[in-house]
Design goal:
alpha+beta, globular, 8-stranded antiparallel sheet
Length: 152
């Protein structure tokens, strides 16, 4: 666990409003990932900085037990051109705690890591949290994912 400062950034991608109640987020976010790949969203995002995929959790109603928005997309240079059926968002950045998880994405790596994070005393601000799927995440059976959690 490292404390880091994240600079402001912009993302274009697709989104869904969901909740962790009754396992709904696992279903909704799984469907969002399926849509991301089946619709070729990665190739349709204009002004991409690179092909790193960000899974962003924002617009929290309260904390992780209440509804929030998930955005799946890429960092972009600008929000001047947002394709139909996509969203563009700006994030302020700030103080974060950075975790890394390594393992098999098909066997619950993400959900397991979030379960651990929810149990930690991190002094979270529930503004914007995100996962980074970079070069080390390309093999789903042996992936390394970064988790960045906004803190006070």
């Amino acid at each position: 666990m490292n404390k880091v400062t994240v600079k402001a950034f912009k993302v274009i991608g697709i989104s869904i409003r969901t909740t962790n109640e009754n396992g709904q987020a696992a279903k909704d976010i799984g469907e969002l990932w399926n849509r991301f790949f089946s619709e070729g969203v990665l190739d349709k995002i204009p002004n991409k900085v690179d092909n790193t995929i960000y899974s962003i959790y924002t617009e929290y109603e309260s904390d992780h037990t209440k509804p929030y928005t998930t955005v799946l997309g890429c960092k972009v240079e600008s929000l001047n051109e947002i394709p139909k059926a996509m969203v563009g968002k700006s994030f302020e950045g700030g103080k974060y705690v950075n975790f890394s998880a390594k393992g098999d994405l098909t066997k619950g790596l993400i959900v397991d890591q979030w379960t651990k994070i929810w149990e930690m005393d991190l002094n979270r601000v529930y503004s914007t949290d995100f996962e980074v799927f970079g070069v080390k995440a390309q093999n789903p059976n042996d992936a390394e994912i970064e988790f960045l959690i906004a803190v006070k």
